[in-house]
Write a structure and sequence with these properties.
mainly alpha; globular; Serine Threonine Protein Phosphatase 5, Tetratricopeptide repeat; single chain; 217 residues
Length: 217
């Protein structure tokens, strides 16, 4: 009996060690992919995100309050690389329930995936559904930033969108979406800018938090 218990314990330790290692490696790939994505090196970014998804298909990235599952990153980079059919499938996967080994929902940041699904649909000719998804994604991102800045105003929330540039842009686009004369090309451009700017905002918020801590010490 002792031998069996020892074997089971050793197996569990090995399983969790392997899982932790895969998650760490996936995180390294995601950070490299984010850097490539922000400078427009889309094929390289896609390669890193696909590698991360292979290592840990349940991986969720956490950045200053924002969270996003790996399939959202894969779909976004596929969109940026012009692979619209693949992007649609991947982003729909990112928006679908995804259960991890503990039965926890790992849907991640649905708002960003929804925004990019809308961009993909709009560029693929499905204007009506595309505009609906873009609007939903933008509203969600706006609400998330508002929540960060209020609920966590004494911690990381105060570093998010301090000039309200992101939220002002979204407000303008939502106002346009409420009218009949929607400039779809402008909306697509604004959506692509928003996707990158939110990603960059994570880096800026981290930088500002780190610099403030250094000043305090």
């Amino acid at each position: 009996m002792k031998t069996i218990r020892t074997y089971i314990f050793a197996s569990l330790v090995a399983l969790f060690s392997a899982s932790g290692c895969a998650t760490f490696q996936a995180g390294t790939d995601v950070e490299a992919g984010r850097k490539a994505f922000l400078i427009g090196d889309n094929e390289v970014a896609l390669g890193y995100f696909q590698s991360a998804a292979q290592k840990d298909p349940d991986y969720v990235y956490y950045g200053m309050g924002l969270r996003e599952n790996i399939w959202s990153y894969v779909g976004r980079s596929e969109y940026a690389a012009g692979r619209l059919a693949q992007a649609r499938q991947t982003l729909e996967k990112a928006l679908s329930p995804n259960r991890g080994m503990y039965g926890l929902s790992l849907i991640g940041d649905q708002d960003m995936a929804r925004l990019y699904l809308g961009l993909t649909l709009a560029r693929s000719g499905d204007r009506q559904q595309g505009l609906k998804e873009i609007e939903g994604g933008m509203r969600g991102i706006y609400d998330e930033i508002e929540y960060f800045t209020q609920a966590f105003r004494f911690s990381y929330g105060r570093y998010w969108d301090p000039t309200r540039e992101i939220r002002s842009s979204i407000e303008g686009d939502l106002a346009m979406l409420s009218r009949k004369d929607v400039d779809v090309q402008k909306l697509i451009g604004d959506g692509e800018w928003l996707g990158k700017q939110v990603e960059e905002e994570i880096n800026l918020a981290r930088r500002d938090e780190r610099e403030e801590l250094l000043r305090q010490n």
